[in-house]
Amino acid sequence: MRENHERYARQVTLSQIGRAGQERLATCTVTIIGCGGLGTVSAGLLTRAGVGRLRLVDNDRVELSNLQRQALYYESDLGRPKAVAAAERLRAIDGDITIEPVVARLRRSNAEKLLRGSDLVLDGTDNDAARYLLNEVCLRLGIPWVFAAVDECYGLTMAIVPGLPPCFRCVFGDPLRPRRGVGTTKGILAPIAHIVASLQASQALRLLLKDGNCTQGLLYVDAWEGRLERVEVKAHPEGCPSCR
Ligand SMILES: [Zn+2]
């Protein structure tokens, strides 16, 4: 093991992680799609937790309006590709971790290439089209993924595990009939993005450590009202084309 006894001293003592778990995390690859309000926070947490390899996928550049909520970026990053700027900050946190920035947008044509080889994928996108694509490709490749979305003061997150319905489509329905999804308005309270990304990172660690029943259902959080609810969700009763 790397000389990280001191770095992880407060983590390996957790019964949920332990020394074996820490060693396991160092062997894992996590792909984060989107380096915005969610992805920058989850990437920071997983880097600090000692996940060995992170692939960061984002096609956008840092804008002034991002600094209100997106961790890892500074005024000096304005105009830089987010994936590159985020990778630089994460390497400054831990130079032993492999960070792979990819300046690209997730598309049907590149999804399999971007996701293949991951132990886990995190949703840091801001649109449902990308989430249905993540659901389809991750299930096909047998990779668990963690959905997350925020809008205004509330957010949602749910782990989707191949072979363990429900999947994203079971819960949110047919992609051909898009609902008015979360992440479609312009307002986002910064703390909700950090809270939901933190819950997403917690689920990510459990999934990577294969900790029992990792699926917690759909978590709903309202940061303004101070509410956290677990919504029970079920596999589609008539069979879901994505996860059956
Ligand atoms: Zn399904």
| Low-pLDDT stretches | none
Got a strand count?
8
Largest sheet data: 8 strands, mixed
Shape: globular
> Helix and strand string, N-terminal first?
HHEHEHEHEHEEHHEE
Structure in words:
Strand 4, helix 6 and strand 5 form a beta-alpha-beta unit. Helix 3 packs across helix 8. Helix content is 32%, strand content 18%. It is α/β, with parallel strands linked by helices and 244 residues long. It is built from 8 helices and 8 strands. It has one domain: 3-Layer(aba) Sandwich (Rossmann fold). The structure holds zinc ion.
Please summarize what this structure is.
The protein is an alpha/beta fold.
Key attributes of the depicted protein:
alpha/beta, binds zinc ion, Rossmann fold, 244 residues, 32% helix, 8-stranded mixed β-sheet, 8 helices, globular
Write the layout of secondary structure elements.
Elements: H1 9-12, H2 18-26, E1 29-33, H3 39-49, E2 53-57, H4 82-93, E3 98-102, H5 111-115, E4 120-123, H6 128-141, E5 145-151, E6 154-160, H7 168-172, H8 190-208, E7 218-222, E8 227-231
The chain binds zinc ion (ZN).
The site of zinc ion has 9 residues, from helix 7.
